[in-house]
């Protein structure tokens, strides 16, 4: 089978969780003997495609030209992020005036103006965000969500859906190998530095309590001010590192004790599962959809409650690492297992 993955233009220039999802899904499908082409939005599809598989429902302008022109089987991994909480803080007046879909539309056009993304097209400009998403869904045969919570949100926001199947994300083999023995100390945060990820909150707490904290991730190119704010409030115990992967990422996971995920929203926090596979403790903001997807391997907290959260973090740093996650559970989430569910959705 020849499968075309269609992903956002900035998939590699601003890597994120969807970058890992696209690459790992493609690699697992290839191990099963299938041909997978990764297409960056704006480039043509190869010939003789059996399945068109797009990523990121929230970027309909990237996908609609392919979905309207391709006549075969069309599958969509929604990765539907709700920016409402972050945007209501970042742009309170505009959020109140335009709502989340209107503000998302404005942000899409703004990315064109500042040169960080391509022009979304006249059809998108006339339809707007919500109607463009609905048009994309009408041209989709099967939607893949990473949680039941995500499927419910899609239906609430856009109405009746095509066939919808819940398929969690996988854990790559390198994370499932036994971690190196040695001491594990301090807190780790992973992710692009932006309002949605809410790293500044934990940086402030770590500076106040002098916790050793390593912050790993590149600044969001559209939110450089947030990175500067994070640096400005950081005390001497805070270390900033650029985006990393491979052996360097494994070394960070193996040397740190606690992963903290303070995001206002994550559709599926893959880094939480990767950290758990390396026997780290995981604390996360108990919001949709994380309270479903991370419940098996971590503990949720209300990050608006500083007193309770800081106490829980201090306790986690003080506790011994004597809790080992079920290896059977983790191996059931390997990409080679997950890809079998994706193949079933193609049928």
Give the gist of this structure:
The chain has helices at residues 17-31, 60-69, 84-90, 92-113, 122-127, 129-138, 148-158, 173-176, 199-209, 224-233, 246-255, 270-277, 290-293, 306-318, 327-331, 335-346, and strands at 2-7, 35-40, 51-55, 73-77, 142-145, 163-166, 187-190, 213-216, 238-241, 258-261, 281-285, 299-301.
Order of helices and strands: EHEEHEHHHHEHEHEHEHEHEHEHEHHH
Instruction: Estimate the strand proportion.
Output: 15-25%
- Our measurement of the CA-to-CA distance between the termini, rounded to an integer number of angstroms, reads 11 Å
CATH superfamily of the largest domain: Glycogen Phosphorylase B
Main beta sheet: 6 strands, parallel
The class by helix and strand makeup works out as: alpha/beta
The count of DSSP E runs of length 2 or more, i.e. the number of strands, is 12
Total domain units? 2
Residue-averaged pLDDT: 94
Write the layout of secondary structure elements.
Layout: E1 2-7, H1 17-31, E2 35-40, E3 51-55, H2 60-69, E4 73-77, H3 84-90, H4 92-113, H5 122-127, H6 129-138, E5 142-145, H7 148-158, E6 163-166, H8 173-176, E7 187-190, H9 199-209, E8 213-216, H10 224-233, E9 238-241, H11 246-255, E10 258-261, H12 270-277, E11 281-285, H13 290-293, E12 299-301, H14 306-318, H15 327-331, H16 335-346
Write structural notes for this entry.
The protein contains 16 helices and 12 strands. The chain has 2 domains: 165 residues, 3-Layer(aba) Sandwich (Rossmann fold); 158 residues, Rossmann fold (3-Layer(aba) Sandwich), CATH 3.40.50. Helices cover 46% and strands 16% of the residues. Helix 1 links the parallel strand 1 and strand 2. The model has no long low-confidence stretch (mean pLDDT 94). The N and C termini lie close together (11 Å). The strands form 2 sheets. It has a 6-stranded parallel sheet with strand order 2-1-3-4-5-6, sandwiched between helices. It has a 6-stranded parallel sheet with strand order 9-8-7-10-11-12, sandwiched between helices. The chain has 347 residues and is an alpha/beta fold.
């Amino acid at each position: 089978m020849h499968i075309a993955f269609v992903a956002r233009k900035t998939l590699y220039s601003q890597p994120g969780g969807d970058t890992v999802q696209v690459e790992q899904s493609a690699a697992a499908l290839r191990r099963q003997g299938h041909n997978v082409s990764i297409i960056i939005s704006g480039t043509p599809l190869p010939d003789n495609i059996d399945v068109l598989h797009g990523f990121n429902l929230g970027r309909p302008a990237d996908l609609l030209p392919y979905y309207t022109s391709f006549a075969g089987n069309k599958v969509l991994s929604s990765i539907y992020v709700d920016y409402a909480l972050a945007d209501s803080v970042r742009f309170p007046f505009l959020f109140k005036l335009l709502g989340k879909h209107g503000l998302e539309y404005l942000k899409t056009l703004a990315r064109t103006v500042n040169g960080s993304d391509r022009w979304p097209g006249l059809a998108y400009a006339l339809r707007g965000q919500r109607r463009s998403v609905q048009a994309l869904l009408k041209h989709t045969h099967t939607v893949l969500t990473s949680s039941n919570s995500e499927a419910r949100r899609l239906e609430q926001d856009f109405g009746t859906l095509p066939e919808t199947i819940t398929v969690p994300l996988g854990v790559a083999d390198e994370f499932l190998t036994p971690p190196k023995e040695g001491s594990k100390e301090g807190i780790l945060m992973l992710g692009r530095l932006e309002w949605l990820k809410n790293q500044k909150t934990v940086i402030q707490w770590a500076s106040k309590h002098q916790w050793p904290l390593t912050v790993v991730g590149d600044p969001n190119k559209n939110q450089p001010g947030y990175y500067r704010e994070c640096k400005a409030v950081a005390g001497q115990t805070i270390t900033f590192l650029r985006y990393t992967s491979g052996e360097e990422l494994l070394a960070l996971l193996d040397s740190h004790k606690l992963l903290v995920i303070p995001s206002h929203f994550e559709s599926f926090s893959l880094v939480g599962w990767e950290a758990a596979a390396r026997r780290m403790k995981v604390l996360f903001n108990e919001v949709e959809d994380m309270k479903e997807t991370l419940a098996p391997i971590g503990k949720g907290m209300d990050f608006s409650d500083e007193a309770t959260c800081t106490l829980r973090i201090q306790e986690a740093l003080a506790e011994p690492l004597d809790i080992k996650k079920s290896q059977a559970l983790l191996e059931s989430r390997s990409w080679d297992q997950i890809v079998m569910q994706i193949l079933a959705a193609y049928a």
